[in-house]
UniProtKB/TrEMBL annotation, chain B:
Name assigned to this protein: Glutamate synthase [NADPH] putative GlxC chain
SUPFAM superfamilies: Alpha subunit of glutamate synthase, C-terminal domain (SSF69336)
Molecular function, one GO term: glutamate synthase (NADPH) activity
Keywords assigned by UniProt, alphabetized: Oxidoreductase
Top-rank EC class of the record's enzyme: oxidoreductase
PANTHER family: TUNGSTEN FORMYLMETHANOFURAN DEHYDROGENASE, SUBUNIT C (FWDC), TUNGSTEN-CONTAINING FORMYLMETHANOFURAN DEHYDROGENASE 2 SUBUNIT C
Organism in which the protein naturally occurs: uncultured Actinomycetospora sp
EC number: 1.4.1.13
């Protein structure tokens, strides 16, 4: 089943409320995915300060901050924020340098997100409990996504949580299953792409990241995904620039979009949108099969 | 004795029993509706909850004041359900009789597998509207999405707006009427002539739905009956 929510705030006055709005939305999709939840937020300066980048890590050792600091030139201000299974490391260095330092400092750990704007949290457990662990209601920012998981094809653990964030400030969440992911994974591996898991969604995320790296915009990348991937999917893809939704041509997996002058939201079900401010004035529709919908900042 | 005036009749009509879903759950609501102690109900704060008024089997009125989630009024028998908002997947699925009216839009699979009764969607209906319908009548005020009346077996689907691609794919029977444009027709679905009996039934359905379109504006689609029997000799497999 799985549940997806996404919220892109157009009105800066709402930015301090991002976490509260996401938490209310999460309640509406918890029953769709009670196993685990992953959350990504963009633009929270207390969690990813201006001038810093953040890397989210699973299985982080306790001394991660000190080790990362010794690996970075000039011993910068490295901060660590633990939140359940996830540890967020920030430092005033570029994304690649911080990611490389985190990997070198903790070879057994797994990097699950990185970016200038982005912070990713993943964990196994009930969505509402984990939302408290992540301090979701206190989050501020301009964009957020979450995924509640009912696992069907790989184990229930933090590694299997969405979003898959495999490029700086990129996130992909998926409701459905890809059927030809093994073939595409082999092809991407031949091109030099490496993978963290056997999960089908990771293949989608790596494919989109590769398209974006080639210079495609989100719409083109998702149209290419539609030509290449077989299976069932509703996808929500976010970057530092925006927000995109696409469904496969059969469109069995649900999706509802609500567009308001102050925000754009997407969810698996209407009830996740019911509490958004001004929902009664929003344009509410279901995305057409195979069509890519994008919104920019 | 003279007839009651409209206002007098209204006054004498029993006031609906109000059930607020902000206070009680859907199970409590449906338990009451399954063994009704009143003839008329009003449901407040539906908030997109699933299965509102599913399994009604008495001649009662249920007004849902807001948006309903999945399977609203599913399996309805004899009840008259009105949703003052939009409805999620599978509204009135497997309806047997009675009526369901959605004043807003309906999500996918509206009226799926319905065997009888009338489903009216005043707004638009999404994909797979009337999938596997088996006798239900469905009238949609606006457009329907792709794959409408997929594998339809009996009943009538009236679309006052446009119909999306693959209309009537693998249709057995059922009569489909579309006033606007149609996308592609699904396998074995063909356009058919509109005869007097079709105009008459369309008029009846539109009247029942409270719509006043001219039946002459509609086109009719149905089964070419080309998939009823295997035609290949399977020798090439």
């Amino acid at each position: 089943m799985c549940g997806i929510i996404g919220l892109h705030l157009r009105d800066p006055e709402l930015h301090p409320m991002l976490g509260r709005l996401l938490d209310d939305m999460l309640c509406g999709v918890s029953e769709r995915g009670p196993d685990s939840v992953g959350i990504a937020v963009y633009g929270d300066e207390t969690r990813n300060p201006a001038g810093h980048t953040a890397v989210s890590v699973l299985r982080a050792p306790g001394d991660l901050a000190a080790t990362v600091a010794t690996l970075l030139p000039g011993a910068p201000d490295v901060r660590v924020q633990p939140a359940g299974d996830t540890t967020v490391v920030t430092a005033p260095v570029d994304v690649d340098a911080l990611t490389a330092a985190a990997v070198a400092a903790a070879p057994d750990a797994l990097v699950v997100g990185s970016g200038h704007e982005l912070v990713v949290y993943k964990g196994a457990g009930h969505p509402q409990d984990l939302a408290r662990t992540y301090g979701l209601r206190e989050v501020s920012g301009w964009q957020g996504v979450a995924h509640t998981r009912m696992a069907t094809e790989s184990a229930i653990n933090p590694e299997g949580c969405h979003p898959y964030s495999v490029g700086a400030d990129q996130c992909l969440v998926h409701n459905g299953s890809f059927s030809n992911h093994a073939t595409i994974r082999r092809e991407l591996r031949r091109q030099g792409v490496s993978f963290d898991s056997e999960n089908d969604t990771e293949v989608g995320a790596r494919f989109v990241a590769a398209c974006l790296a080639e210079g495609d915009d989100l719409e083109k990348a998702l149209l290419r995904l539609g030509e290449t991937f077989d299976g069932f999917y509703t996808l929500l893809v976010t970057t530092a620039e925006g927000f995109a939704v696409v469904r496969d041509e059969i469109a069995c997996k649900p999706a509802v979009i609500a567009e308001h002058p102050r925000w754009v939201a997407m969810a698996s079900e209407f009830r996740a949108l019911a509490d958004l401010p001004g929902i009664d004035e929003a344009r509410i529709f279901e995305p057409d099969p195979g069509k890519v919908y994008t919104w920019g900042r | 004795m003279g007839a009651l005036s409209r206002a007098e009749a209204q006054e004498r009509a029993p006031q609906p029993v109000t059930i607020d879903l902000a206070e009680v759950g859907v199970r409590a609501l449906n338990a009451e509706l399954h063994a009704p102690t009143a003839t008329s109900y009003e449901v407040l704060h539906p908030h997109g909850a699933h299965s509102i008024a599913a399994g009604v089997h008495d001649e009662i009125d249920v007004g849902v004041r807001g948006h309903a989630g999945y399977f609203c009024a599913g399996m309805n028998q004899r009840g008259r359900v009105v949703v003052d908002g939009s409805a999620g997947n599978g509204v009135a699925e497997n309806m047997m009789s009675g009526s369901v009216r959605v004043r807003g839009d309906a999500s996918q699979a509206a009226g799926a597998t319905g065997r009888g009764g009338l489903l009216v969607v005043e707004g638009r209906a999404s994909m797979r509207c009337g999938i596997s319908m088996k006798g239900i009548d469905i009238v949609v005020g606006g457009d329907i999405g792709a794959m409408g009346a997929f594998m339809a077996q009996a009943g009538r689907l009236v679309v006052c707006g446009d119909a999306g691609d693959a209309l009537g794919d693998s249709i057995y029977e059922a009569r489909l009427y579309v006033r606007g444009r149609t996308g592609t027709l699904g396998a074995d679905c063909v356009e058919k002539p509109v005869r007097d009996e079709h105009l008459a039934e369309l008029r009846e359905l539109l009247t029942a739905a409270g719509l006043d379109h001219d039946p002459a504006e509609f086109r009719r689609f149905g089964s070419a009956r080309g998939l009823y029997h295997f035609t290949g000799d399977h020798g090439s497999y």
